[in-house]
Specification:
This protein has 351 residues and is an alpha/beta fold. The protein has 14 helices and twelve strands. The protein is 40% helix and 13% strand. It has an eight-stranded parallel beta sheet with strand order 4-11-10-9-8-7-6-5. Strands 1-12 form a two-stranded antiparallel sheet. Strands 2-3 form a two-stranded antiparallel sheet. It binds flavin mononucleotide (FMN).
């Protein structure tokens, strides 16, 4: 996680001057649809733990600002509910559920199709469960077992408790259809945990290619040969990502492998980027290196935690203002011109 942000900091951009005054155009066409800025909310399971109703808050902000919101498989709101709130800007992320011969996976894709989801993202970088010492230390388990530690944590936060009382807690909402409807939240989380883990094979990715008529993206690509393989089975885009550093602790910083992936498939597929983006300047950095847009995870969670229902709007605003300001400082008019920025990036990995 730290390496992602440090490596981004080391990417230098050379400004050019002498242009007339202008306001940069930061709109971007992604997979045939116009979005207002090159930033998307990354898929994150259970934002409702950070602020009750987190997914709905993200969806409303995405609709209002016209930026993509990627609903996670492990979300606390259904695809049907989120596409109601953000009919043109919802993307859906799918984890492989090693059960029932992928029946549940294909049914989720069907639901995404019938509700008008724009982009389907298959996450590849969770082949095995990771040991996360901080989560263990903070007793964050699935299913969650509230105890004295929870009480100590929530008592000083009456606003959060009020929001919980109003909204309730509703994780793994998309799984409900596949279980006994009377399962308690605890049992549903247990059901979800039993079905998590494992990654899609290339053969399976191509089966999803057949099942999903819209734009298909794979997330978690770090090696240019995997990027080429993804293109060969028909994906439209990749997210160059190390899961924000939450999976393989020893993985390289995502930004350091981005140039090699751009070199390998940049002409054939849309390259998205995530892991470590913390500012509009970071977004411009990765666009200068050839990404079309960036996804952002933790900053949106931090926004939710700090500001509740206003949190997502706030983070969207700071990104759009900072992207625009960074482009103006560097001297580019629009997203396409970001490709021409002179860059120093000495740590780029050579394959
Ligand atoms: C709390 C949390 C939950 C996440 N859950 C998912 C998930 O359900 N599916 C997924 O593909 N990625 C998930 N991710 C990874 C994000 O999509 C993204 O790759 C990562 O957060 C990007 O790094 P950043 O947090 O530095 O922006 C999660 C990340 C966080 C922080």
């Amino acid at each position: 996680m730290a390496r992602n942000a440090e490596a981004l900091d080391l990417v230098e951009l050379l400004p050019r001057y002498g242009l007339e005054n202008y306001k940069p155009n930061i709109e971007i066409n992604l997979f045939g649809r116009l979005y207002s800025a090159p930033i998307a909310i990354a898929p994150m399971g259970m934002p409702g733990m950070v602020w009750p109703g987190g997914e709905e808050i993200f969806a409303k902000a995405s609709h209002k600002a016209r930026i993509p919101f990627t609903l996670s498989t492990a979300a606390g709101a259904t695809i049907e509910r989120i596409t109601e709130l953000a009919p043109d800007t919802t993307w859906f992320q799918l984890y492989r559920m090693p059960h029932n011969n992928l029946e549940m996976n294909f049914d989720l894709v069907k639901r995404a199709k019938s509700t008008g989801v724009h982009v389907l993202i298959l996450t590849l970088d969770v082949p095995a469960r990771t040991k996360r010492p901080r989560e263990l230390r903070n007793q964050l388990t699935i299913p969650y077992k509230p105890g004295l530690h929870t009480l100590i944590d929530v008592l000083p936060h009456p606003g959060w408790m009020l929001a919980l009382a109003r909204h309730g807690h509703n994780s793994f909402a998309n799984y409900k259809k596949y279980t006994n409807k009377k399962l308690s939240g605890y049992e549903l989380a247990k059901f979800a945990r039993q079905r998590s883990g494992g990654t899609f094979s290339w053969k399976e990715v191509s089966q999803f290619r057949d099942a999903w008529p819209g734009p298909l993206v794979v997330k978690g690509i770090l090696h240019p040969n995997d990027a080429e393989k993804a293109v060969s089975v028909g994906v439209d885009g990749v997210v160059v990502s190390n899961h924000g550093g939450r999976q393989l602790e020893g993985a390289p910083a995502t930004v350091d492998v981005l140039p090699a992936v751009v070199n390998a498939i940049g002409k054939e597929a849309t390259i998205l980027f995530d892991s470590g983006i913390r500012s509009g300047l970071d977004v411009v950095r990765v666009m200068a290196l050839g990404a079309k847009a960036a996804l952002s995870g933790r900053p949106f969670m931090y926004g939710l935690g700090a500001l509740g229902v206003q949190g997502a709007d706030h983070v969207v605003n700071y990104y759009t203002e900072e992207i625009s300001a960074a482009m103006r400082q560097i001297g580019v008019h629009n997203i396409q011109e970001c490709n021409n920025i002179v860059i120093r990036h000495e740590n780029a990995l050579k394959f």
